[in-house]
Amino acid sequence: MNVPSAAHAPPPALPATPPPPTDAWVDLSDYTPGDYRPGRGKLTQLVWYFLSVLLFESGWLPASGPKRALLRAFGATIGRNVTIKPNVRIKYPWRLKVGDHVWIGQEAWIDNLGDVRLGSHVCLSQRAYLCTGGHDHRRRGFGLLVGDITVGEGSWIGAAATVLGGVTIGPNALIAAGSVVTKDVAGAQVVGGVPARVLGDREPPTA
């Protein structure tokens, strides 16, 4: 009978290595989106993702008409004469409602895990960011938080401004470039800064 030599014996199992210590107050490995539902199935999300990358985010299609039609085909409500500049990102078109004569500027990002409503004659300037999603930093699992965003008629969201979830902006308000809006803005108010604060009132046009 052959006896296996020590050279061919399997090595002894090593003890399990404990994870390295961490000072993090959150555990992202424990993250779940909770009961959040995107509103469409995974196949629709996947098809939209690729069409968005090809026709919206790439910037090679300058015309607004085909982009309006595509958004409507995926469930968005899009009014008349809406201008959509190149390199725009829209998370879920079925959660988007846009009034008439709205301008959506180049590289604007509508990150609409929740519903986003843009009233008629809203100007969303280049690189503006509407962010409906966030995280609960008070929970170790860093759970998902979602809040809708509404922008009233005639309002102007300046370049590179950020509007956070749960915010309602009244009609004819003006958000200064680069601002971060964390709470509601009354109609015809001018706000700016990080976080945004009231700077004054917007006067109606004279002509």
TrEMBL record:
Domain of life of the source: Bacteria
Pfam families: Hexapep (PF00132)
E.C. number(s) listed in UniProt: 2.3.1.18
Gene3D superfamilies found in the cross-reference section: Hexapeptide repeat proteins
Class of enzymatic activity (EC top level): transferase
Keyword DNA-binding appears in the UniProt entry: no
Annotated Pro residues bias: 9-21
Name of the featured protein: Galactoside O-acetyltransferase
Organism: Botrimarina colliarenosi
Gene name tied to this protein: lacA
